[in-house]
């Protein structure tokens, strides 16, 4: 966890999880995000530097679980940096699908 | 007695299914008294696709696990040379350890290692395949999505074909790039229970009516449907494949049990019943075209972005 100059902390995903494809890796990220949220009141910024792609398993165990526990409100403190446009698009689609399914339930 | 496997690049699912079923160990061992060895013949076969190789690997693995020697009749066919070049024949040598572990990069830059899939090595395999093709043929294209697609396919195999209670935990993968047409194929075959059986097992356990194989396969591709073979499943995997490949004008084919699904380059989806067949396990193939992939965005964006 690296402090930012402004508000909150930066979590570099490649430093937290061995990969971005398995549930185990997703869980590692989830734990790190929740800890960062508890330890300070500012933003939690996820750096995607060096990340190639994600799987739904990884996302289910990280951002998906965070959404189930905290809802949209929890994501008001989440930001992304060092991402590629395709990665941002993929993550936004994942979150939109999650909300859609959540609303349907 | 020796069992001969006459290999061919069967075009239809029926032909491929018949070939696989008639050569599976369980059938051959029951009908061939004193089975001592297996010989694969490829004479006159001059074309082959990754799904032929991965499904043949599943067949051979059953004999290999029983320590039945496997040989290939030398011949001048292109397929014989291809199987030799990609290290396929070496996989079945009796001098090798009986358990297939790891994968060996091969000399042919157009192909990426035939691999017996395992959860432990999945990330290594996927990242190695990505690196291999990215720097060989796709330097200016964004193929990061390949890692996502492969993961979805493998996780589907591990969650369903390798689920608790599943019998044969055999799955093989192979990626092949065709420089002339600039197309990348990736196939994964498993000899698990098949997607319809997995879906219907879930429905049965929840006192819901079972579906026909086609309806069950269709159900499996829906966003949000999961057979919950593992607690984390949310039903995103096959939808990720479908929607992602549709955007990239890619193709997706799933052959499983008595059903087949196909997504064409134009985004048309179709389901067909494989009436009277029982395709062993599941074979998934994706196809990507160089020309349809987006230019690689080399620099990462520094600006902060929110997800909502």
What's the arrangement of secondary structure elements?
The complex is a heterodimer of chains A (105) and B (308).
Chain A: E1 2-3, E2 8-12, H1 13-16, H2 23-39, E3 43-47, H3 56-74, E4 78-81, H4 85-104
Parallel strand pairs in A: 2-3, 3-4
Antiparallel strand pairs in A: 1-2
Chain B: E1 2-6, H1 13-23, H2 25-31, E2 37-41, H3 50-65, E3 70-72, H4 78-85, E4 111-116, H5 122-136, H6 144-161, E5 171-178, E6 183-190, H7 195-205, H8 213-220, H9 237-247, E7 251-257, E8 259-263, E9 269-273, E10 279-289
Parallel strand pairs in B: 1-2, 2-3
Antiparallel strand pairs in B: 4-5, 5-6, 6-10, 7-8, 7-10, 8-9
List keywords for this structure.
heterodimer, A: 105 residues, alpha/beta, four-stranded mixed beta sheet, 57% helix, globular, B: 308 residues, alpha+beta, Heat Shock Protein 90, seven-stranded antiparallel beta sheet, three-stranded parallel beta sheet, 9 helices, 34% helix, 20% strand
Structure description:
The complex is a heterodimer of chains A (105) and B (308). With 105 residues, chain A is an alpha/beta fold. Chain A has one domain. Chain A is built from four helices and four strands. In chain A, strands 1-2-3-4 form a four-stranded mixed β-sheet. In chain A, α3 links the parallel β3 and β4. In chain A, α2 runs parallel beside α3 and α3 crosses α4. The longest helix of chain A is centred in the C-terminal third of the chain and has 20 residues. Chain A is globular and about 35 Å long. The mean pLDDT of chain A is 91. By secondary structure, chain B is of the alpha+beta class. In chain B, α5 packs antiparallel against α6. Chain B has a seven-stranded antiparallel β-sheet with strand order 4-5-6-10-7-8-9, with helices on both faces. In chain B, strands 1-2-3 form a three-stranded parallel β-sheet, with helices on one face. Chain B has one domain: Histidine kinase-like ATPase, C-terminal domain (Heat Shock Protein 90). Chain B is built from nine helices and ten strands. Chain B starts with a strand and ends in a 19-residue tail after the last strand. The longest helix of chain B has 18 residues.
């Amino acid at each position: 966890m690296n402090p930012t100059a402004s508000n909150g902390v930066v979590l570099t995903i490649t430093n937290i999880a061995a990969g971005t494809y398995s549930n185990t890796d997703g869980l590692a990220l989830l734990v790190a995000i929740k800890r960062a949220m508890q330890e300070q009141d500012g933003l939690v910024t996820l750096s995607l530097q060096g990340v190639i792609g994600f799987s739904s398993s990884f996302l289910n165990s990280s951002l998906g679980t965070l959404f189930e526990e905290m809802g949209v409100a929890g994501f008001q403190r989440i930001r992304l940096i060092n991402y590629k446009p395709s990665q941002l698009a993929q993550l936004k689609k994942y979150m939109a699908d999650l909300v859609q399914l959540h609303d349907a339930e | 007695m020796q069992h001969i496997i006459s290999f061919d690049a069967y075009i239809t699912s029926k032909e491929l299914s018949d070939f696989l079923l008639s050569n599976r160990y369980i059938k051959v061992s029951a009908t061939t008294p004193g089975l001592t060895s297996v010989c694969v013949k490829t004479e006159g076969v001059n074309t082959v696709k990754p799904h032929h190789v991965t499904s043949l690997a599943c067949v051979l693995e059953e004999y290999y696990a029983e320590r039945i020697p496997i040989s290939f009749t030398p011949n001048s066919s292109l397929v014989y040379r291809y199987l030799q070049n990609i290290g396929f024949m070496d996989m079945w040598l009796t001098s090798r350890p009986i358990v297939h572990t790891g994968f060996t990069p091969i000399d042919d830059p157009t192909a990426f290692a035939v691999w017996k899939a395992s959860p432990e090595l999945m990330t290594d395999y996927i990242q190695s395949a990505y690196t291999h093709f990215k720097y060989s043929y796709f330097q200016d294209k964004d193929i990061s999505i390949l890692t996502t697609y492969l993961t979805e396919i493998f996780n589907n195999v591990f969650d369903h074909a390798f689920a608790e209670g599943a019998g044969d935990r055999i799955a093989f993968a192979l990626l092949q790039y065709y420089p002339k047409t600039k197309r990348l194929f990736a196939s994964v075959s498993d000899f698990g229970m098949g997607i319809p059986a997995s879906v219907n097992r879930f429905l049965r356990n929840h006192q819901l009516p079972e579906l026909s194989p086609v309806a069950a396969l269709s159900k499996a591709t829906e966003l949000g449907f999961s057979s919950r073979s593992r607690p984390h499943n949310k039903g995103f995997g096959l939808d990720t494949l479908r929607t992602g490949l549709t955007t990239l004008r890619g193709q997706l084919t799933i052959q499983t049990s008595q059903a087949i699904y196909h997504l064409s380059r134009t985004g048309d989806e179709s389901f067909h019943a494989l009436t009277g067949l029982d395709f062993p396990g599941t074979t998934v193939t994706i196809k990507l075209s160089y020309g349809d992939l987006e230019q690689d965005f080399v620099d990462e964006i520094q600006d902060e972005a929110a997800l909502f």
